[in-house]
Design a protein that fits this description.
Helix content: under 10%
Number of helices: 0
Distance between the termini: 35 Å
Strand order of the largest sheet: 1-2-3-6-7-8
Number of strands: 8
Structural class: mainly beta
Order of helices and strands: EEEEEEEE
Radius of gyration: 26 Å
Strand content: over 45%
Length: about 180
């Protein structure tokens, strides 16, 4: 089985200066993509609760190899630039890019509970679905400008892909109507 978590962030802003400095555009883009490769086992159980009412429990758990890639880019560039003494003055700053990757084992578990009621030829159901990932990437950004080799407890001294976990929940309903 293959699963994926894809996160894309794009920020655009403009800093406006005075008539001499003009404005500078600030751009920030990052992609944090994780793909999970592995296998899972599952079980489904259904029980009749009387008078056309049934309960279905559907669960699975799997072991996966998680591969995370991070691509980040920040840049500054000319915005609206003023004309100074007949010449165009522009402000162009540096562009920075960062690529990181991380591989980790992960467990993914899923449980769905569905309650269904028959109404003659039509059925109505409500469900709840929960999913848990033991590894979900979380970016930690450099919080220190004190230089290389200086370790400060509680401060991230590098930009890195950290470990976290993730939960999701979905609730819904459905109406089943046969077409014949």
């Amino acid at each position: 089985a293959i699963r994926g978590l894809n996160q894309d962030t794009a920020l655009r802003s403009s800093l406006t200066g005075d008539d001499v400095a003009g404005s500078v555009d600030l751009n920030y883009d990052e992609q944090l993509d994780t793909y999970y490769y592995g296998a899972f086992v599952g079980v489904v159980g259904r029980t009749q609760m009387g008078a056309g009412l049934s309960l279905t429990l559907d669960g699975e758990v799997g072991l996966y190899y998680a591969n995370t890639d991070y691509q980040g880019r920040s840049s500054t560039g000319p915005g609206s630039v003023p004309v100074v003494s007949g010449a165009v003055a522009s402000v162009v700053g540096p562009s920075q890019t960062l690529s990181l990757d991380k591989q980790k084992a992960a467990v993914v578990a899923r449980l769905k509970a569905e309650l269904e009621q028959d109404f003659g030829p039509m059925r109505v159901a409500v469900f709840a679905l929960g999913e848990w990932y033991s590894y979900a990437p979380e970016m930690k950004y450099n919080e220190s400008d004190i230089g290389v080799g200086h370790i400060v407890p509680g401060i991230d001294n590098e930009t890195r892909i950290a470990n976290g976990d993730a939960w999701s929940a979905t609730f819904g309903g459905k109406i089943i109507v046969p077409l014949n």
